[in-house]
Amino acid sequence: MSHVLIVDDEPSICWGFRELLADEGYDVSVASSAEEALELADRTVPDAVVLDVRLPGRDGLSTIQDLRRRIGRAPIIVITAFGNLDTAVRALGEGAYDYLTKPFDLDQVSDVLRRALRQPPATAATSATDEQPLAPESFIGTSPAMQSVFKQIALVAPSDVPVLITGESGTGKELVAQAIHRHSRRKDAPFLPTCLAALSAGLIESELFGHVRGAFTGAEQARQGLLELADGGTVFLDEIGDVPLPVQVKLLRAIEQHEVTPVGDARARRTDFRVLAATNRPLDELVARGEFREDLFYRLGVFHIHVPPLRERAEDIPLLARAFLRSAAVDGRIPTVSEGALGELSSRRWPGNVRELRNAVERAALVARGGEIEADHFPPPPITATTSRSSAEELKLATSNWADESLADPQRGELLEAFLRVAEPPLLKAALAHCGGNRAAAAKMLGIHRATLRQKLSDYALNDD
After folding, report:
1. Could you say which DSSP state residue 373 is in?
2. What is each CA distance from 9 to 15, 75, 106, 149, in whole angstroms?
3. Which DSSP symbol is given to 408?
4. How far from the centroid of its chain's Cα atoms is residue 261's Cα?
5. Are 427 and 395 contacting, i.e. CB atoms less than 8 angstroms apart?
6. Strand order across the 27-31 sheet
7. Which residues is 6 bridged to in the sheet?
8. What DSSP element (H or E) covers 178?
9. Is there a contact between 80 and 52 (Cβ–Cβ < 8 Å)?
10. First to last CA, the chain
11. pLDDT per residue as tens digits for the range 267-303
12. CB count, 10 Å around CB of 111?
């Protein structure tokens, strides 16, 4: 019978663990503080420990090494309700077997425990992150989606494997790459990013591999490429899907052999770099169409991190908005934001993701001129192709049969008025839906005054819709 020590100051959590694990045949002991946990471990060495981060007195993370001296190589599973990137990095760097964020399903912890007790536990970690002061937080988020990203960064940072980072434009893929580098053993060496989509096809090879003098027209001097300049450090290749096929062959060889051959040169040069790549394009579809090499796809994707779009982590929007307002502070005065404004932000789809949110918040801070930010200080949502199509379809549906309803006698000059009575209500509703119910934004999008919109909504009895 395996003995599991639960360390958490929440009685309900401890009770749930005790009931669940006891039913599964575990011997369970409970401690409500780090100090009590160390005393229990002195008396009886557990086979596994479930350890909360925030405890009264000494915190869980600073207790791991003292626990390790008492329990040997037994797995430690860290749990927390206040996870962030640095916490995940530190927990795994201290040698935790796994890192879970609350709220979680107790069955999830049970599954992790079974896996941990089945395999030989690893020795305490001695990663590069153990000796470095953790950098300021680059990401903000309490959502499960972002907690998963933090954990993946913490897992992969100490290694040298290539990482493929995917996600929509504006989600923060380069921030992920920076965090991986910052928490790696290469942290003191260069981090060199490049956006391949911004380069012409003919320049990408020279940018990556460099060139010798006279290699092509305009090459008046020899130039080292990005992969050689990144020796000892990390290179970040943004929009990797835009690399031409001939260059993909050369890039694959450089990653596998750690050698680069400048354009116009026959001699390979040794270089030690780690490659992180990112794309918002579906590389698997590019592979299927023959536009991206399958072998390079698998080599880059040894470890894959997907950054979720903002609409899938709406609970992070208020945190992000307040963080952006802190960075927009003037003379130390941080703008405040009303609950209605936060509700407006949370209701939007944000096709431009975090980048669009930041722009909207910083613009609102300027419009509010030092006062509290309200919903109408934000710019109206951009009209995307999808939105335009949806609104057009709704309008078409609503007006398709208007001429069949004997709305007016054309001879009396009432045709336009009759048409507007049918066409305006769905248009107004579509505009309001697109703007999340924000009447000021809807009026601006329609090109009418807010008072005009208010009157039309009243005329068509749409106020309660």
Report:
1. B
2. 11, 20, 16, 27
3. -
4. 35
5. yes
6. 27-31, 3-7, 48-52, 76-80, 98-101
7. 30, 50
8. helix 173-182
9. yes
10. 61
11. 888 999 999 999 999 999 999 999 999 999 999 999 9
12. 11
